[in-house]
Design brief:
- It contains 18 helices and five strands.
- It is an alpha/beta fold and about 350 residues long.
- The protein has three domains: about 120 residues, Rossmann fold; about 120 residues, no CATH class; about 100 residues, Arc Repressor Mutant, subunit A.
- The protein has a five-stranded parallel beta sheet with strand order 2-1-3-4-5, sandwiched between helices.
- It is globular and about 80 Å long.
């Protein structure tokens, strides 16, 4: 079983060392990325869906705890291994509020790391997904339901739901009430699984009405359950129809204009996605599709261009320029600048004179 691992640490030698250690230990440990701070780590997590994030606590721009909090809203299954120095260990305990159970101190002990990864593996229960439905319902009927939802054909959806519940009635005596309810929940998720969960409205709708078992716990009759399933699917379709109309606007153009006006602030992917009422995963994918680069890289490149202009045109100190382009840590800014231009800020300014 492959385990997808994201490493987040502002010290490249630690990230590289961890990546080497993991790949040498097992081919099942796949490092999907190495982020240098919490903002970049959030971006990579939303795009890469890691099973485990190994992260430092103290980093520029966004701490490991801030990043964990933001990721959990969109990747609830992800587990975390938190790295801290001895002086930070008590501080790290705050992460327990976010459900973090695994802590390592620097220098990292290899066997402790591997033991934690295996403990996480043991926690996972194999996902059944839609296996029970596939055993009970013909694949043709499930495909018709899915196609009706994709095409937003309510008559086809109603017909598919009716056919599926006819089968459910024929097996009612063999199923517990709880099993029937769970099958109904899975039918809604199956019907919407090809929907682009773009908006916060769609996420909230499904989370409130589907992913919470309380929404169906008081329904007993199959007739009521059939109406519940159809009405939820119809509501999801109405939300998607409204979202598609909104998508005709130039969302990324508006986002880029907002970034250009606010690049000097700490504007995270989470914040900007929320401003335009879309979830970060959808926004990140759409941004990359439209611009050819990730949100974080676009923001960094914009900041570096502004910094170059300030170095050429003003006598501001490097730390002042760092603050003006959105970085509170001047050393971190200098590293990014050198990575972007191949020169330290002072050397860049000297050559431009």
């Amino acid at each position: 079983m492959e385990i997808r691992i994201l490493i987040v640490d502002d010290e490249p030698e630690i990230s590289e060392g961890l990546a080497f250690m993991l790949s040498a230990r097992s081919q099942e440990y796949r490092v999907i990325g190495k982020a240098r701070d919490g903002l970049e780590g959030f971006d990579m997590a939303i795009e890469g869906h890691p099973d485990i994030v190994i992260t430092d606590i103290r980093m520029p721009q966004a701490s490991g705890l801030d990043m964990i909090r933001d990721i959990q809203a969109y990747e609830p299954r992800t587990e975390y291994i938190l790295i801290s120095g001895y002086a930070d260990f008590e501080y790290a305990k705050r992460a327990m509020e976010y459900g973090v159970q695994f802590f390592l101190t620097k220098p990292i002990d290899e066997e402790e790391l591997f033991a934690d990864i295996e403990k996480i593996r043991e926690k996972w229960i194999p996902q059944q997904d839609f296996a029970e439905m596939a055993d009970l319902f013909p694949e043709k009927l499930l495909q018709e339901l899915e196609e009706g939802m994709v095409l937003q054909n309510l008559d086809a959806v109603r017909k598919s739901v009716s056919g599926l519940f006819d089968i459910l009635r024929s097996h009612q005596a063999d199923l517990s009430r709880e099993n029937i309810r769970m099958l109904c929940l899975n039918l809604v998720l199956y019907g919407t699984r090809k929907y682009p969960y773009a908006s916060l409205r769609m996420n909230n709708y499904l989370g409130r009405n589907v992913l919470s078992s309380r929404s169906v716990s008081r329904i007993n009759s199959l007739e009521e359950l059939e109406n519940w399933v159809f009405n939820l699917l119809r509501g999801a379709g109405e939300i998607l129809e409204g979202e598609e109309a909104e998508d005709r606007r130039d969302l990324i153009g508006e986002a880029k204009a907002y970034i250009q006006e606010n690049y000097a602030r700490n504007i995270s992917l989470n914040e900007i996605a929320g401003r335009f009422y879309v979830n970060p995963f959808y926004f990140s994918q759409l941004f990359k599709k439209k611009t050819g680069t990730t949100y974080q890289k676009y923001l960094t490149e914009l900041r570096m261009k502004r910094a170059q202009a300030l170095l050429r045109q003003t006598d501001l100190k490097v730390y002042e320029i760092s603050e003006r382009v959105g970085y509170t840590d001047a050393n971190y800014f200098s590293k990014l600048f050198e990575r972007s231009t191949g020169k330290k800020p002072s050397a860049f300014r000297a050559e431009e004179v």
